[in-house]
Write a structure and sequence with these properties.
Elements (H helix, E strand, L loop, with lengths): L6 H21 L3 H21 L2 H23 L18 H18 L9 H22 L4
Length: 147
């Protein structure tokens, strides 16, 4: 994946998405891989929110709130998607979350030239959102003031 616009932030997002995809392909889709993705998301969330572009910051707050609920339920079943109650996916499917996801996807697509492949099922959506959050963490590194 290559960023075709948006400058350094978008290039870093593309690099992080490529890295996340490569890691997922190498580690598979097992419980350990899913747990690692969730832990990565949790470790970068605050940094992403603190330095997110204003155009998508509110949308990220909405997405992260829904993901926190979903990932909390997933942790209770030891990250095994086959054991999760389908109703737990409901927060990911609310109109507000869907709109927030569309806004973030549109920002990445229109500003960065990065197509995140929106329109997948909730389980894949959660994994993709974690990868997206990881990619946005690169913004944190770029926007953080150097000491």
């Amino acid at each position: 994946m290559v960023a075709t616009g948006g400058g350094k932030f978008c290039q870093q997002v593309a690099a992080e998405v490529n890295s996340s995809v490569a890691k997922a392909a190498a580690s598979g889709t097992g419980i350990d891989s899913i747990k690692a993705s969730v832990q990565e998301y949790q470790s970068i969330k605050a940094g992403v929110l603190s330095s997110a572009p204003g155009a998508i910051k509110g949308d990220l707050v909405t997405l992260f709130g829904a993901l926190d609920q979903f990932y909390g339920a997933l942790a209770k079943v030891n990250y095994d998607f086959t054991k999760i109650d389908p109703s737990v996916e409901a927060p990911l499917e609310t109109p507000a979350v869907q709109k927030a996801e569309q806004n973030v996807d549109a920002y990445l697509k229109n500003t960065c030239g990065i197509d995140t492949g929106a329109g997948v099922n909730a389980s894949a959506q959660a994994q993709a959102s974690a990868a997206e959050a990881s990619a946005l963490a690169e913004l944190s590194a770029l926007a953080a003031p150097s000491s």
